[in-house]
Write a structure and sequence with these properties.
The structure is a homodimer. Chain A is α/β, with parallel strands linked by helices. Chain A is built from eleven helices and 18 strands.
């Protein structure tokens, strides 16, 4: 099975600390790399974590607070200095294009690749990216400005051929892809062999959801059963009011979202700078949802 | 004597590495703090080096390449989040104001302090900042775009009173400042006591020059005798042609500038990402100008 990995580049919140970097993640699925959010300093984090710059072709920006997008111009500029020619696609609120175009024109003059902006309507749940194996959906979130999460899903995969059965029925090579897709096989003698005799279940289609920044909001239908949910947990329970005022979540609220949606694992992050360590946040989330991991810069989470 | 210190926040060049940060320095003179250049990640470097954000009121930007200014928006935004009320003054090419105004309006909405842009004409050597004890002059440099260095000078200081003489002539308190400024003292009996009998030489007025990015250029009249010269040394001798093409300097050329101007000490930086360590650059500069220091993140250089 191909790798499906989440690489944490930054999991701090708005105020800079030496403990955490601003929000950014790399989602690596097979040989594809997607970036989600790009706070200041993300390009250094990519270097530090040995992420290949040239494999990043799609960047998804949840919302236009600085700690989620101030690293973009540096990254775009560095791509240019490195001689990139492949187009770069950025998915974000329309305002980002307006803000970045003049900067790109000035700072990246003469670079040899185009940057395409794809405007997201953060109020809608819809597919915003699709290729032969992956879809990315926008997830409406509740923040102080238009903000959406992202749900990465593998498309349904082909079934596995059962080697012995393929040999027994002497199935010709040109038929095999269709059989993996689920059709039955008719022998030259006219016997119909049901697909279930020829194939085993496909590998499961894995999924990862990224929800930051947001007050708790009900996306449980959409998030149902995802393999890994990243949900912001800016505050501990003791700061519940502050969380509500600023449209952020407590760790316990993140855990409640994970419970409600029946996700397999929860990854928390976007820690307020007031916490020296995420221990209290992890503890409070685990009380409700034990399968919780606290994000940390450089961490790689595998989805199997 | 008050402190006069240069704090190196970043001394790398355009391409990000894990060894160096993008250009930024703090010049601390007494209780004043000036910033020169502000590459991406500078606010993290300030945190890492325990620099107080609230004492930074004046930022000088040498030129508009990203590695010298991409950290500004993050810093301005963080100042806002921290509740700053004191005005911030930014000295830079006029284009910066045009590029940053829309970003500040959008990302820093509702912040309680004003940002004033002071446009610099990089082709002119002139005083661009002045207060009761300091002047900052622009230094025309030779780069691929308008670019200037900065020369920080203490103003001439008052002479020191000689305690014994002051007591002997019973000089009244209200006269003392004027005597420190150099006037003679006339006793009630009409005797003129020359200033040289009453005072000792003032502390020397110290100076620091920042020259990055630039091909070697002749500012030796202006730089004559400065206490410390920061001069970019992007390349080693072996990359002399590349240096010329890109309007940068080799370490040896930086040393030649230091020799020509008769500065006291040379500080090199802005190292190309191709050098794992600045050793070769330091060696080549020292051959010509032994009083050379290689800048390093976190380094503090005192000017006595």
């Amino acid at each position: 099975m191909e790798n499906f990995e989440i690489h944490i580049m930054g999991c701090g919140s708005a105020l800079p600390t030496t403990r955490h970097c601003a929000s950014a993640q790399i989602i690596r699925i097979g040989n594809k790399q997607f970036m989600v959010d790009c706070g200041e300093g993300t390009q250094i984090q990519l270097r530090r974590n040995h992420i290949h710059f040239s494999f990043i072709n799609h960047i998804f920006i949840s919302h236009l607070h600085g700690d989620h997008c101030f690293g973009l111009i540096g990254l775009i500029s560095t791509f240019g200095l490195l001689g990139r020619t492949a187009p770069l696609h950025i998915y974000a609120d329309a305002k980002l294009e307006e803000l970045m175009k003049p900067q790109i024109e000035f700072f990246c003059k003469g670079m040899h690749y185009p940057v395409f902006f794809h405007n997201i309507d953060a109020t809608k749940h819809q597919i915003i990216y699709e290729d032969n194996t992956i879809t990315v959906e926008s997830l409406p979130l509740k923040h102080r400005m238009p903000c959406c999460g992202f749900l990465f899903r593998e498309k349904p995969k082909r079934r596995h051929l059962i080697g012995d059965a393929v040999n027994f029925y002497n199935i010709p090579a040109y038929m095999r892809q269709a059989i993996k897709d689920g059709i039955d096989y008719t022998t030259p003698e006219g016997e119909v062999v049901p697909n279930s005799k020829l194939t085993k279940d496909a590998d499961p289609s894995r999924s990862y959801a990224y929800c930051s920044d947001t007050a708790p909001c009900d996306n449980s239908e959409i998030l149902k059963g995802v393999d890994l949910l990243y949900h912001e947990a800016t505050f501990a329970d003791s700061e519940k009011e502050r969380a509500a005022q600023t449209f952020h979540s407590t760790a316990r609220q993140a855990a409640q979202v994970a419970c409600d949606a029946g996700v397999k694992r929860l990854l928390i992050g976007h820690y307020s700078s007031r916490y020296e360590t995420p221990d209290v946040l992890l503890k409070e989330a685990c009380e409700l949802f034990p399968e919780t991991i606290a994000a940390k810069e450089g961490m790689v989470i595998h989805i199997d």
